[in-house]
Amino acid sequence: MSQDSRPLYSRIYKELKNKIESGDYKVDEQIPTEIELAEMHGVSRITSKRALIELEREGLIYRKRGSGSFVKKLDNRSLSSISEGKIISMILPYVAANGLLGYIHGATDYLDDKGYYLAIHSSNWSKDKEKELIYSLPRRGVSGILLYPVSTLKNLDAVYSLYMNRHPIVTIDQYYDNVPVGSVTSDNFNGGYMAASKLIELGHRRIAFVSSINLQYRSSVRDRFYGYCKALQDAAISIDGDIIVDDFIDKYESSEKQEFIQSLIDRLLEKGVTAIQAEHDHLAVDLVRTAVERNVMVPEDLSIVGFDNHEITANIEIPVTTINQNFYEIGKQAAAMLVDQIDQGIAQQQNKVEIEVEWVGRQSTGPANYTNV
After folding, report:
1. CA angle 106, 110, 111 (to 5 degrees)
2. Which residue from 16, 56, 195, 196 has the fewest beta carbons nearer than 10 Å?
3. Which domains does the chain have, with CATH numbers?
4. Which residue blocks in the chain are alpha helix, DSSP H?
5. What is the DSSP letter of 320?
6. Cα–Cα distance between 55 and 353 in angstroms, integer?
7. How far apart are CA 104 and CA 81, in angstroms?
8. What is the Cβ-side half-sphere exposure of residue 249, based on CA atoms within 13 angstroms?
9. Sequential pLDDT tens for the chain (373 residues)
10. Is 317 exposed, middle or buried (0-12, 13-18, 19+ CB in 10 A)?
11. CA 363, chain centre distance (Å)
12. Angle CA(32)–CA(36)–CA(40) in degrees, nearest 5?
């Protein structure tokens, strides 16, 4: 954070924007690259990339693959698009250096070609803030909403109100079972199935499913769990409720986190578990690090799989096997679905698009070892 409490990416973004608007950087002139900005400001490439994404989203720069970023000429169409109400709002639970930037970049690339401006809003994981945004943004004149829900069990009233008022809305990452709005998500069921199947191929029969949130809280996590169960069933392995652990978010986000994860690993090992399928990558990374601290060998004694393919999984002491999500494609296709609703007047319906996922094998998984069980 900078001294004025703004995120570092925002400081870099503002500095570049000022130079573009003042003419220090001319139209079609190249601006510093991600690497150069990271070195100039002493930040990570992820931070500098976020600043460039924000500039691109605002229509101030354009990118050439393999060449860099260049100042964009602001034509009359760009100047008038906001006043004409061609604004799409994306509501995210948070904005950080991970896959959420992929959603933004994919949506921006599509919307720029269609003359729409993408505005980003954060609910900060608050269902109340999310509801306020869902109700207020249409009154502000936005053309449509791309929503990453805090939970598909929350704010059904607000989302259903938009549907009944025929205000264009498409969800990303998750979908609502009882509200017929469009959605673009990863194929979470297949991802859960794939993760469990790969572990079964490695000889694992005692595979735990671990989720910090309640399995019903988000459709994405629920579908991953269903895929896990189906893979076990297809392999004639009994589904054991004793090694399905969920709904411990309060402990996971408290000062008791480390002790809880340690006890969780010990408890699962006592039950003969040789592999853990985690809800997401950050949990998988915590499990790997805690296992190593407990002198549990990964993957010799315990294999661990995450979900998302966040950058952190490839950069810890034992790189974590995971399921890759194509965040960019989700953002792009969600934007396309929303623009179809807006431009062609297509009646809203529960059009559910699922984007393929893929297995990313790394060092945290290996053959089952039952000699110590």
Report:
1. 110
2. 56
3. 1-74 (1.10.10.10), 188-324 (3.40.50.2300)
4. 8-22, 34-41, 45-57, 76-81, 99-114, 127-139, 156-164, 188-201, 219-234, 249-252, 257-270, 281-293, 327-344
5. P
6. 29
7. 19
8. 9
9. 444 556 777 788 888 888 887 778 888 899 998 888 888 888 888 788 888 887 887 778 888 777 889 998 765 444 444 445 588 999 999 866 556 788 998 999 999 888 888 888 989 899 999 999 999 999 888 999 999 999 999 999 999 999 888 899 999 999 999 888 999 999 999 999 999 999 999 999 999 999 999 999 999 999 999 999 999 999 999 999 999 999 999 999 999 999 999 999 999 999 999 999 999 999 999 999 999 999 999 999 999 999 999 988 998 999 999 999 999 999 999 999 999 988 876 655 668 999 999 999 999 999 998 765 5
10. exposed
11. 23
12. 105
Q: Which two tokens stand for residue 18?
A: 């000022």
User: Which tokens go with 162?
Assistant: 């938009």
> The tokens of 324 are what?
């890759």
Which tokens is 229 given? 């169960």
Encoded tokens for 126? 């608050």
Provide DSSP, 59-111.
Answer: TSEEEETTTEEEEPP--HHHHHHTTTT-EEEEEES---SSHHHHHHHHHHHHH
